[in-house]
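The following block was generated as part of the benchmark described in Methods. Ligand: zinc ion.
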Amino acid sequence: MNDLIEKIRAVLDEDERLLRLQCPWPWKLNAEEDEVWAADDELVADAHALSSNQQRNTARFIVRFDPGRAERQIAAMRKILELHQPCQPPDYANAKGVIVCSTCGPTGNDSALYMFKNEGPNFWYPCDTMLALGEASGITP
Ligand SMILES: [Zn+2]
């Protein structure tokens, strides 16, 4: 399931590549809350030609999810990815093929060793955190 790790890394790399192409952040709203402006005072989005609160809400949304937020989220997801790597735990040194998350360990209600003895080599990876990270990246196993 290291495939999931590589897919998530590819999504994060592409997200970061696109992020670096954006106007400088933080982005902010004008007083009327219908325009979005970059940190260098360049116009990012103009919603005033559109009427209704929905467009102003869209401008607020763009500011809330500006590249600074995306940058923080990408960095946090990379940290989570590094914390949840597949590994063979030391206490299962004789249980070849048992793969667990480096942080979560075996998952489920049964111990990995009990499951190994009764069902043979098994895998407890990806953990729920990695599956959620994949889901957040648009990847489903
Ligand atoms: Zn984990």
